[in-house]
Specification:
The complex is a heterodimer.
Chain A lengths: L23 H9 L2 H23 L4 H17 L1 H14 L3 E5 L2 H14 L4 E4 L3 H5 L2 H7 L3 E4 L2 H8 L16 H15 L11 H18 L2 E4 L3 E3 L4 E6 L3 H7 L3 E7 L3 E2 L4 H13 L7 E5 L10 E7 L3 H5 L15 H5 L1 H6 L10 H12 L4 H5 L9 H5 L6 H15 L6 H13 L2 H17 L5 E2 L7 H4 L4 E2 L6 H8 L5
Parallel strand pairs in A: 1-10, 2-3, 2-4, 4-7, 5-8, 7-10
Antiparallel strand pairs in A: 5-6, 6-9, 11-12
Chain B lengths: L2 E4 L2 H5 L3 H12 L4 E2 L9 H6 L2 H15 L4 E4 L2 H18 L2 H10 L3 E3 H8 L12 E4 L3 H6 L5 H7 L5 E3 L14 H4 L1 H17 L4 E4 L2 H13 L5 E4 H6 L2 H4 L1
Parallel strand pairs in B: 1-2, 1-3, 3-4, 5-6, 5-7, 7-8
The chains are: A alpha/beta, B alpha/beta.
């Protein structure tokens, strides 16, 4: 990773995930060649897309809910300090211990300290984007603590020494035959082996995971989770999941450590109602979420007795300072934007080189991490700006506008260092600044058109244009431009 | 009503048949459209590639050229989207309050062709004749940025002789995306190939859209495949009449 000195983000290196991966176009090209993955992704995204469209379509107040969700999040972001202090006070009052972490390193240090204090060398985990963002599993592993992912798809990713490729369905790129192989080859080394004669039937795969994980749930003393929401006026943390594995982690162990991004706050208990409608319909295409677990500090004699909450900044206050970019912090990690994105559908999640893939990853990652590296500079351009992401976003994040905003940031950071693109852009801007200059350039084009006679298109052409003409024909310029025609015929009157 | 045509730099230079057809069509509908020759480019390519400083003078020039008109008709949904949805951000960035005011005046009266005909002229039957099998691709910016809805289809349905067929997965992006087509050429082509496959499934002779840039992507792939499907701008079909056909 190369970091330029012009990078304005002081926390540029606090989300050090997927370092050294090539930039988006290179990764995407590679992914496009993986036909199995493309089929898996196409099938999966179109299935979830249709489900979401159906359950959203049956809501007559969806637009109002979206606005309400966006307004609630904006209210939180506008007064984040107040709500966080309120949340802390309520958490402490209910018997939880609150920790503050400026960045990934500090958050990991706090969690490691808490786990070590319990004298254990393993923890069970509820699927959490925040802990992936700070690379907590890797940090724990470094000090000899095994972190077991208990979400089925996260388990597949972890056992396969793989990277998640989707926010909600981390193993979306895998087919069931691949999952069977991973279970057969890897389960035994870390716990209960896969059953003999297990086929790739989803039921059998799920049963193998259930048996494997049960041993870990029953043994674990410490669990680590994130939170979908943290309610300021009650001090309640909320986790939504589909399998019940999260609830096992949230109720069985003695100690629960929740790592929560500071933007997860909701002002009041009532606000949760909006998001309990927005999130399940947007993410899994379900009307209601299967497992919703809420806890307000420890409850005597029931569930975890030591409750810790680590509130993580990790670049978020930096994002907050950006007027256009701040709406990215409304994100509730539903992944609806991934499922409708034509670029994600073809390139897959790994191409984004970030724990947050897809359209939201293309804006969130360079915001949290800064645009210092080649990969972060390429992410705002990993979109055709088709706008499908904005249309489905339950909290109305205008991702296309944010992408353009970030592209401007990338270009601004490199002003002064000329390259082929900036030179071409400046030359064209100069040409368009005056219609007489444009006409001069047009004369060259129409001359080319005349020389090419009756040809309708050019084939593959070399040079920079080959990026276009490799697969697409180039049209031959017309023999007369519109403005030449207009002046020759007096606007078609002659 | 003084109406100006914004031909767009791309159509002016590469696809002059589209603004020519627009002029014929609007005249037939009783609109004496003017072409202010000082116009050049809306600056969208610069804005969307991150070159906001380069786009600001173009936005200023657009405002200067078109300020005096009651309506501006553009032959590109995408360029219209840039004027209406992006000029505000550019003006704000420039810190020039005169530009902010100018944009606020000019942007709302800048229309994409189907919006102008249906909303301003209040017409859906433009008296066109086009006896061919046609499928319509709703371009992303007209669909999601401008929300033109089914206005282009309302106009096409009234065309005499037309055999209008639905395009499968119509609302999916063709993969053009401006400089995206070059910067992420592989993904762009993968998206375009699926679009072209759906177009070929319809067995249409002509694919129509409101933007020649998307049609350049689609047409470039169709040509390479020697698919025998033509691309046409909406204006060209709406401008066609029985007299011309005979």
């Amino acid at each position: 990773m190369t970091t330029t000195s012009s990078n304005p983000n002081p926390l540029a290196d606090t989300m050090p995930t997927f370092i050294g991966m090539p930039k988006f176009p290179t990764m995407a090209k590679e992914a496009l060649g993986n036909t199995q993955q493309r089929r898996n992704l196409q099938h999966a995204t179109h299935t979830i897309r249709a489900k979401r469209a159906a359950v959203v379509g049956e809501m007559n107040d969806w637009e109002a809910l979206r606005r309400n969700g966006a307004d609630t999040k904006d209210e939180v972001l506008a007064h984040l300090d107040t709500y966080l202090e309120q949340l802390e006070a309520k958490l402490v009052e209910s018997g939880a211990t609150v920790h503050w972490a400026r960045d990934a390193e500090e958050a990991n240090r706090i969690v490691i300290g808490l786990v070590q204090a319990e004298g254990v060398d393993e923890v069970v985990k509820v699927k959490s984007m925040a802990t992936q963002e700070i690379e907590l599993n890797e940090a724990l592993e470094e000090v000899g603590i095994a972190a077991w992912e208990t979400d089925l798809a996260e388990l597949i990713v972890q056992l396969g020494d793989d990277r998640p490729s989707h926010i909600l369905v981390p193993a979306i790129h895998r087919g069931r035959a691949e999952i069977r192989e991973i279970f057969r080859n890897k389960m035994a080394a870390v716990g209960r082996p896969a059953p003999e004669g297990m086929t790739d039937e989803p039921r059998q795969l799920a049963e193998a995971a259930r048996l494997h994980l049960r041993e870990k749930f029953l043994r674990a003393k410490v669990a680590i989770s994130g939170a979908n929401f943290a309610i300021a006026d009650t001090g309640t943390l909320v986790v939504l999941e589909s399998e019940g594995n999260g609830r096992m982690c949230l109720t069985l162990p003695e100690t629960l450590i929740s790592v929560v991004g500071i933007e997860k706050v909701l002002p009041t208990w009532e606000d949760l109602g909006t998001f309990m409608q927005l999130l399940p319909r947007s993410s899994t295409g379900e009307r209601m979420n299967p497992y919703t677990t809420m806890w307000t500090g420890p409850a005597a004699g029931d569930g975890p007795q030591n409750v810790h909450v680590v509130l993580v900044d990790n670049g978020r206050t930096h994002v907050l300072a950006d007027e256009v970019g701040r709406q990215g912090l409304r994100c509730i990690r539903c992944s609806a934007c991934l499922n409708v994105c034509p670029v994600y559908e073809r390139a897959g999640g790994h191409a984004y080189g970030s724990v947050y893939p897809g359209p939201i990853g293309a804006v969130l990652t360079p915001q949290l991490r800064g645009t210092g590296s080649a990969i972060d500079q390429s992410l705002p351009y990993a979109s055709s700006l088709c706008g499908a992401c904005f249309e489905v976003c339950p909290v109305r994040i205008d991702i296309p506008r944010m992408l353009v905003h970030l592209r401007t940031q990338v270009v601004d950071e490199h002003r002064g260092t000329r390259n082929a693109e900036s030179s071409a852009m400046q030359a064209m801007a100069w040409m368009f600044a005056d219609n007489r200059r444009l006409q001069k350039a047009q004369r060259a084009a129409t001359l080319g058109g005349k020389l090419l006679g009756k040809r309708t298109s050019l084939g593959a052409i070399p040079g920079p244009a080959s990026a276009w003409s490799g697969a697409r024909d180039v049209p031959v310029p017309p023999k007369e431009t519109f403005r030449q025609w207009w002046s020759r015929t007096d606007g078609g009157r002659r | 009503m003084r109406v100006a045509l914004f031909a767009t730099c791309f159509n002016d230079t590469m696809w002059p048949e589209t603004p020519k057809a627009t002029v014929r069509l609007l005249r037939r509908l009783g609109v004496e459209v003017e072409f202010p020759p000082e116009q050049t480019c809306c600056g969208q390519m610069f804005t969307n590639t991150g070159y906001a400083d380069e786009a600001i003078p173009l936005a200023r020039s657009f405002v200067d050229v078109f300020e005096g008109y009651d309506a501006v008709v553009s032959v590109s949904g995408s360029c219209t989207g840039s004027v209406r949805e992006q000029y505000g951000d550019l003006a704000k960035r420039s810190g020039d309050t005169a530009l902010v005011d100018g944009v606020a005046k000019v942007a709302p009266k800048t229309y994409e062709l189907s919006e102008f005909i249906v909303d301003v002229l209040g017409v859906t039957d433009v008296g066109a004749y086009f006896p061919h099998r046609v499928t319509y691709h709703p371009t992303c910016h007209s669909l999601r940025m401008l929300k033109v809805g089914d206005r282009p289809l309302q106009l096409l349905r009234e065309v005499r002789g037309i055999d209008l067929v639905d395009l499968p997965s119509a609302t999916e992006c063709c993969g053009f995306g401006g400089t995206f087509a070059m910067k992420n050429a592989d993904v762009s082509v993968a998206m375009g190939s699926d679009k072209v496959r759906h177009i070929r499934e319809t067995e249409a002779e002509v694919v129509v859209a409101g933007d020649n840039s998307c049609l350049a992507q689609i047409g470039g792939l169709l040509e390479r495949q020697r698919a025998g499907v033509r691309t046409m701008h909406l204006a060209e079909i709406l401008a066609s009449t029985e007299q011309e056909a005979s």
